[in-house]
Amino acid sequence: MSHFLELSQLHKTFPTPKGPLTVVKDFNLKFRKGEFIALIGHSGCGKSTVLSMVAGLEDVSRGGIVLTGKEVTSAGPDRGVVFQAPCLLPWFTAFENVMLGVDQVYYTASKLERRQIAEYYLSLVGLADAMHKRPAELSQGMRQRCGIARAFALSPKMLLLDEPFGMLDNLTKMELQDVLLDLWQRDQKTALMVTHDVDEALYLADRVVMMTDGPEATVGDILEIPFPRPRNRRELLENPEYYRLREYLIHFLNERSHHRPAPSIPPAATPAPDSGIKRFFNSLSVV
Amino acid sequence: MNSKFQNAALSTALALIGVGLFFLLWLALNRFAPDLPTPTSTWQGARIYIVEPFAYRGEQDQGLLSLTSKSLILVAKGYFIALLIGAPIGFCLGLSKNFTRTFDPIVQVLRPVSPLAWFPLGMVLFLGTGGQALEYGALFTIAVCAMWPTVLNTAVGVRAIPQDYLNVGRVLRLSKTKMLFKIMVPATLPYMFTGFRLSLGIAWLVIVAVEMLTGKVGIGQFIQDAYMNANYGNIIVGILTIGIVGYILDRLMSVVEARFKTA
């Protein structure tokens, strides 16, 4: 069965004064259609580089990226990107920023239809009343709402989110995660999100891909997130399974991310073996 | 509010003190240079040009603002030629490393050349046009001298376009034209306007030299005329007029520049 998106043997090498530096090595990942994958890892480990390669903004040094049967060689509107700093063009209003992409993708539609598409997505993200303001007049959170609207309005095959909420305060972040989930559920887009926020990854993703530290970063482990959708943040926080998975991810980031992967052990299948001292006390209590 | 008012009052007072000191210096200089007219005699000699600023008493004998407007028109023409040529050259320099390698040395060599040196070449270039040679030569000189700040600032601005903005364009697969006019030009505008403002300053600086060389009627020629006819007071009046007009132009451009800065 062919996959929606397949990254195989992905390498990224940057030239440095001390010779070539391999940032990403042997990165393999297959996406199912409609799947939301969160890519977590320490800052600077190369996770954004992977996303940039999928976006076509960085060249692939070796290996390949195949999206719906076609190799990715350059950037294009079939992959909507939400950047970390929302990257709105400051000389355009929020509406015009979205229209720039809409005009590009729906060039056969009438002017009125294109306006309606832009307005529709801007209202979905909650910017109906502020769409004719310039980015400078918008709060950080509103700008990122506009960034999300811009990406969705392209009607892309997939979404690429590069730490989109990294610069927001916690409250705004949670609001925007819900905006994103809402839109994602509506359109069932395949999505790749880079983040270093474990809770964000657990709340949003179907699978969390853990990356080892660079250089020569690669997939260290993959965790399936079994929570049913639509998800409810409060229910999730009351679920003991949530904390077990959270612990697992944090353990990876703290302990295991420094090494190239050992064969991955499915979590929870076997309880961690007790340490010697614990076994000793256990034996005492039995006696 | 109160302190704001006090601040403004202090600024005005200090500025007036500066003007007062200027006149004291002038009076002091009168003691060393007996041919230098005093403030009073200057005012008497120039009164007619100032109180009747738009008077026309013959081609060589006009009110100050009438002369200034003639100079301004010539400057405006040359200045727009400078912008039309300078901005695209700046864009090419900013966009292409090879273009820079090819033409930057020439730019750097031609940039410091004085308008006095360019003018004869301008005349030679347009000798074929006969009677119009003076006008074209003058425009050539203004344009060539004034375009460099626009060229250099535009180039810097293009190089400073954030990669993020360009990535937005790449993700959307914008055409070359759209990329240029929707992203690159707006992103460069603040730099370009800094260039435009500096270029206008130079264009206004060059006009005096050009009018002295061509004998075209205007504020520069007014000074030349005053010197020739030994109306030395009018030289000072001409200098002050040029200075004030230059200052006003610069302020106006700063206002426009600031508008684009926030965009």
Task: Explain what the structure shows.
The complex is a heterodimer of chains A (287) and B (263). Helices cover 37% and strands 21% of the residues of chain A. With 287 residues, chain A is of the alpha/beta class. Chain A has one domain: P-loop containing nucleotide triphosphate hydrolases (Rossmann fold), CATH 3.40.50. Chain A is globular and about 55 Å long. The termini of chain A are far apart. About 3% of the residues of chain A have low confidence. Chain B is mainly α. Chain B has two domains: 36 residues; 224 residues, MetI-like (MetI-like fold, Orthogonal Bundle), CATH 1.10.3720. The model of chain B has no long low-confidence stretch (mean pLDDT 90). Chains A and B meet through strand 6 and helix 2 of A and helix 7 and helix 8 of B.
The structure class of chain B reads mainly alpha
Task: Report Rg of chain B.
Answer: 23 Å
Oligomer: heterodimer
Instruction: Write the CATH architecture name of chain A.
Output: 3-Layer(aba) Sandwich
Structural class of chain A: alpha/beta
CATH class of the largest domain in chain B: Mainly Alpha
Mean pLDDT of chain A: 86
> Gyration radius of chain A, to the nearest Å?
21 Å
Unreliable residue stretches of chain B:
none
* Termini gap of chain B: 29 Å
| Biggest chain contact | A-B, 23 and 16 residues
CATH overall fold name of the largest domain in chain B = MetI-like fold
CATH superfamily of chain A: P-loop containing nucleotide triphosphate hydrolases
Beta-strand content estimate of chain A: 15-25%
